[in-house]
Design brief:
The chain is mainly alpha-helical and 88 residues long. The chain has helices at 3-18, 32-51, 59-71, 78-86. The protein is 66% helix and 0% strand.
């Protein structure tokens, strides 16, 4: 199967979920093979969209994180620190 076409089908389904459309009647047009392959993913996406809720960080958290990131030394990452922790 063409993975680009599959991605487009999944993206179209995500758009439909965001618009509040659910169920097989709202699925994008698919061939029989695409239905067989993609229906489990479409059903999972619908289930997750019902279970997960949109969260937004508090303004205090955003401000604190921004401050911490602004003052973090440039060029330092977890790999840089691992050698220091091991004494290498």
């Amino acid at each position: 199967m063409d993975t680009q076409v599959e991605r487009e089908i999944l993206a179209a389904h995500a758009d439909q979920l965001n618009a509040g459309l659910r169920g097989p009647a709202a699925y994008p047009p698919m061939t029989g093979g695409q239905q067989h392959t993609l229906t489990p993913f479409l059903l999972l996406a619908e289930l997750l969209s019902e279970v997960l809720v949109l969260v937004e960080p508090s303004p205090t958290f955003v401000q604190r994180l921004g401050h911490e990131l602004a003052w973090q030394p440039r060029g330092v990452n977890c790999h840089s620190w691992s050698g220091i922790a091991r004494g290498s």
